[in-house]
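Because discrete structure vocabularies remain unfamiliar, we turn briefly to a single example record, giving the amino acid sequence and backbone structure tokens:
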Amino acid sequence: MKTKMEYVKRIFFLMALTFFTAFAFVISSCDKKSDTTNNKPFTVSGAASGAQMVPAVSGSGTATFTGTYDPSSRVMNYTVNWTNLTGAPTSGSFFNGASGANGTSIGSPWTLDNNLTGTGNMTGNITLTSDQATQLTSGNMYYTMGTAANAGGEVRGQLSATR
């Protein structure tokens, strides 16, 4: 015949087993943010004009920026289309900075072909640091394109990164 103490031990063991099983179930079924959500690519875009330059530049030149940013590799691939610049673009660069404020250059200036005109397009890519990626995804990155007539920048476009 089992003693009362053995009976209590079995009940305690079963209660502990039930508790740990329930605890493991609750923990494993919690809604977790998976890495695949954080690594989902961003769509990046930005329309540029002389009015966005600081200070503003008059003219009818415009540009559009389309691209994707992959947070797992930190690579942004992009295409820039421009029209009605005062001449061929002689420079292009990324900067960190809020809309309406000058910022600091990010990465190397763009490599531009010698046979470009005041209307055209180019593609490229840049690998961002984690700080630069934060700037991009928080709306604090822009691009500029300069020409011989406006070497400091003829058009500027703030970048927007959305999922």
User: Anything to note?
Assistant: The chain has two domains: 1-32, 35-162. Residues 63 and 88 are 13 Å apart (CA to CA). The beta strands are 42-49, 62-70, 75-83, 89-96, 104-106, 120-127, 141-147, 155-158, 160-162.
